[in-house]
Design the sequence.
């Protein structure tokens, strides 16, 4: 039987919060205010899709360190113009801050509260510190600790993020579990010695039939949501 973790660290975008649904709602409001109709789902998808290439340029050293807020703003500006949104600088910045207001998945609060009874819980996200703090306050997310890739000047899946998080917690990696809806993140965490738990989020991309929700056999746990994960961890501890 696997060693019981002392800390659960959570990926945030897509795992804890519904980035796509939240952005589509916010983009729709901005579009109505400006009298612009567009495929806001496609807009949100393009905004998210631009994040990894931009982040990878930073990871490869082709670009100086920039926060996720800065990368999101860089991606947003041309997308807004193509959609016909003529936004003032302050309006563009306000729209970019939509990432600070993303709604949590329906199970998140109850599941996190239940997990918090038995474990230290926190984030391990590529989101910058101010973004993660705002999400926690807006969504009443009960984190014990907020850890961001920004602290290490590396982005996941760089090993510096996982090893750095364990070091800050004063724990060997084997005593930390990463909880995520993304198998590549989980694989990177395992390569650094973390325990891992896969949580299915079939609606993350708005297309449930296309979602990868099959069990990840390399993970210690595969769960339908955070409440299910709490139930499984409690069962293991008995």
Sequence:
């Amino acid at each position: 039987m696997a060693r019981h973790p002392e800390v659960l660290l959570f990926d945030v975008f897509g795992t804890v919060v519904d980035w796509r649904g939240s952005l589509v709602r916010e983009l729709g409001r901005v579009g109505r205010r400006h009298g612009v109709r567009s495929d806001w789902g496609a807009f949100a998808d393009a905004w998210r899709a631009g994040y990894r290439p931009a982040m990878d340029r930073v990871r490869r050293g082709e670009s100086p360190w920039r926060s996720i807020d800065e990368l999101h703003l860089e991606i947003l500006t041309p997308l807004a113009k193509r959609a016909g949104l003529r936004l003032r600088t302050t309006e563009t910045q306000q729209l970019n801050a939509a990432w600070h207001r993303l709604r949590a998945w329906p199970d998140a609060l109850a599941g996190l509260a239940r997990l918090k009874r038995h474990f230290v819980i926190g984030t391990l996200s590529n989101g910058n510190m101010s973004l993660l703090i705002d999400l926690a306050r807006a969504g009443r997310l009960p984190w014990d600790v907020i850890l961001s890739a920004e602290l290490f000047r590396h982005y996941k899946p760089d090993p510096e993020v996982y090893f750095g998080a364990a070091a800050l917690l004063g724990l060997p990696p084997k005593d930390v579990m990463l909880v995520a809806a993304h198998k590549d993140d989980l694989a990177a965490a395992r390569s650094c010695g973390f325990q891992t738990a896969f949580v299915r989020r079939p609606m993350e991309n708005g297309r449930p039939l296309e979602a990868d929700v099959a069990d990840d056999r390399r993970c210690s746990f595969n769960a339908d949501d955070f409440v299910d994960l709490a139930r499984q961890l409690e069962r293991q501890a008995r």
